[in-house]
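Q: What changes when zinc ion is included in the input?
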Amino acid sequence: MKEAGIDLLLVSPSADLRYLTGYARGTSERPTLLALQPDREPAILVPELEAAGAGQIAGVRVVTYSETDNPYAVLASALGVSAGGVPDTEIRPTGGVQPSRIAISPQMWAEFLLRLQATFDAAFVSAAPLLGRLRAVKGPDELELLERAGRAVDAAVGQLVHTQFAGKTERQIADEINRLLQDQGMKVAEWGPIVASGPNAASPHHLTGDREIREGDTVILDFGCIHEGYQADITRTVHVGEPNDEFRRVYRVVQEAQQAGVEAAREGVPAQTVDRAARRVIDEAGYGEFFVHRTGHGLGLDVHEEPYIVEGNELPLQAGMVFSVEPGIYLPGKFGVRIEDIVALTEQGARRLNNASREIVVV
Ligand code: ZN
Ligand code: ZN
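A: The predicted holo structure follows.
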């Protein structure tokens, strides 16, 4: 914070708050704000009725407000600073450091930010660079949870390939995936599963629907789960019945691109290097224009976080970073192929946290 010239960091309920404090609570209209200042005791502002839960956070002073208080005035008062937008009578500034640059956690509701801006006479900046880089490098305990989540989605893929696809709808396959994950004690991720069949597979973030899967379809299966807050994310592409030559050719290219991306991941190289390595394989095979998304994203308490594996991201990769390598080729009106694994970077290179077969599977 000192290096970034930030004198107050405010974090609302999100993976950021959970990462910093272990406090996992959803957002409501009553603001919860962790307030961090360099060299000062951390504080958390919570509604009075949630004080007990917040009291479990070690080393953080709990500041509460009642249903009729102005929470932002209470925060200013607790920090011992004056607040421009609040009548003087409500604030007793004592001994605080008046913030001139306030960093806001990226998932904070706009409503809270607007109220904070009306309260504090300061510059407001995003805490994304600060928090993103902290969270990008995982510790051993985090890696263990990510590995466990990864094994669960691998096991689901292993069982899924024995399922009859033809005649079922995308939604039925999605329900089956969720059941396989829940049977392993995993929480199902809200964003998925993506089950994209036939021409729908040409849409990378297809919204799983009621299309009936037929013989001759390609089916992209992209799903995750959550284990003690930590995410998994995997994609496999299966074929219903024997695939034709075009599918096989495209599949091979994606498979090679994925391998090239994983091999390019080394400590010290910029994140974009991994994207370039995967993209080069697809470009050289003549499918460059059909690879329409970045190669990957970091993953941890959020399913998308730093390091983003994309052209332009010069963030140097570090051991402990965990991210996806998920190139794809999408042929409009025809089909698509994507293969995604999560990898953890070590001093020896990338280690896959997903090990389900990456060969063509006929279902
Ligand atoms: Zn995915
Ligand atoms: Zn992904």
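Observations recorded in class: The mean pLDDT is 95.
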